[in-house]
Amino acid sequence: MKKKLVLFLAAVVLVLAGCVNTKSDVKKDESKPSSETKNTSIEILGMSTGEDDLNILRDQLTKNGFNVKLNIQPDYGSFTAQKDAGNYDLALTGWTTVTGNPDYAVRSLFTSDGDNTLFADEEADKLVEKASTQLKEEYTQTYKELEQLVVFDKAYIAPLYTSYKAQGVNNQVIDEKTLRLPKSRAAVWEAISFKDKAKNASQPLLAQQGISALTSLDPIKGNDGSINTLNTNMYVRLVNLTDDDEVVSDGSLSLNHAIADGSKDYYFLLRDDIQFASVKDKKAVDSGERVGAEDVKFSLDRAKDKNSVPDHRTYSLHESMKDISIVSDLKELDVKTTDGQSTVREQLEKGLDKKISTLVRDKTKANNGSGAYQIVKVTTEKPFPQVLNYLAHQSAGIVSKKQVESINTYDVAKYDVNKDIAYGDQKTITEGKDYNNALYASGPYILVSKNDYEAKFVKNPAYMKGTEYEPKISTITVKFIQDPESALSALRNGEIHILNGVPESKYDIVKKDDKLTLQQNKSNGVAYLAFNMKDRDVSKSVALRQSILYSINQEEIKNFYQGNKMNAVSTLSPLVETGLKLEADNNKAKELLKEYQSEK
């Protein structure tokens, strides 16, 4: 879907090198606010990791007549608490489209009932729904209309930039050929191998992430940087994304998948060589329970049901699914696929050693080697090919029906966080008196324990054994290092082997270190300011929000990052070329500010 820019980026940076500022060259604007405007106070909320961006924004807004207060929180938990309490006018945040499709980039944020909604606007709702039914050649115009509304007409968000992805690798320890850097998908742990393969079974791979407070190890209850990588590697899905955002069955629970003519029925032929891992004495063991169609149906039914769990944060991604069923009748597979040239059965049987002879509903009866298979069908409310991208998302991870139902015995409507225990609650896997790890992992790894400093994952002993997708490394330790400088030092000192998210200003340090390799790719990550749309002045005045919008100079931000950022208009920018662009306009910003002040 998108081509890599690993090699191309180097050329881009060289071209830009003659016209960008280094960090030390960026000068604070000394101009004073216009005497024609009275200063207006605004509060920007952010985290310490975004302090450079916050300082740039403060300078840009100050010169246009704003008194800027920065509310800088030390970590994601504190940031979220301040945001939930409404203690901000603007929040510096970001969004990464980890499914590689534009609907994901907008549905959760820009629809009135989205699980991460930023505002409520009926016109935006209609445009999101309209685009979701369209093919690419049609939806570009619809998404352009949506961007125009959300960014320029109503100024619900103020975009800052699109980022590149970059990771540093210890090339003395890791076999670089086994380490992928997908555009959207989280890290593919099962593919990684040490350079010395003899160490795969005896030494842990040392990875890193900044956030130690985990939202939930139940895949449908979180959609943020604390758990995306972890849950992606703990729960298998029906399909996966390639490094370039193409949907494939490779390395998933499906051997093959097919789309019936009309693009409403999606069929998945399941493999029979994955069993759930469980934890005993902080070790991963084979639970003896196979991952099957019953678990798929259970997992997807709860994924699309807003009320299946308290604080369901990913339901809007899966609302397009009308029904999930287990196919029993072979004749149903004789329908044509979308290409009109083959049947669903023919597509599902491609490359199989043994063709489909019978279909079984009971997962214990499946035996691919003898031709006995399970097939799951997903039916959407309307034609919606982008449903496959959502099924590749970590929130569509397959959980054990038996295990989850045995733990989630509480009444969802009366759920009490102080006394009820939910499947995936991080306190149950945190070392201490509450440790009672009841996780069942369908993916290549299972989280056996965590503390404030690290989380330990162990290979699922019953995951695609003997195939190319069987995990190479037995143990992975994820160290929680929030500060980017400290994380980079840990990489250089050998305390971690991989650093995903090398800061742009540190690319050269990694490149110049002989024992390190910098891997780069475009990302679907966009940084933006989200306006507080509840009970603040910015929630009531479009003119005030637009004044802030036009004060933002993306070129200055790009210069600060030495050209290692790209322009953005919205979360759609990495995915759809709408032709729109935000241009800083100080005069317009000051006029809009005066308009707002005259309203008061």
UniProtKB/TrEMBL annotation:
SUPFAM superfamilies according to UniProt: Periplasmic binding protein-like II
Keywords, alphabetical: Lipoprotein, Signal, Transport
One GO term (biological process): peptide transport
Superkingdom per UniProt: Bacteria
Stretch forming the signal peptide: 1-22
Pfam (any one): SBP_bac_5
Residues of the Solute-binding protein family domain: 259-595
Keyword Transport: yes
CDD domains with a match to the protein in the record: PBP2_NikA_DppA_OppA_like
Molecular function, one GO term: peptide transmembrane transporter activity
Family: Belongs to the bacterial solute-binding protein 5 family.
Official protein name in the record: RGD-containing lipoprotein
Record organism: Viridibacillus arenosi FSL R5-213
Taxonomic placement: Bacteria, Bacillati, Bacillota, Bacilli, Bacillales
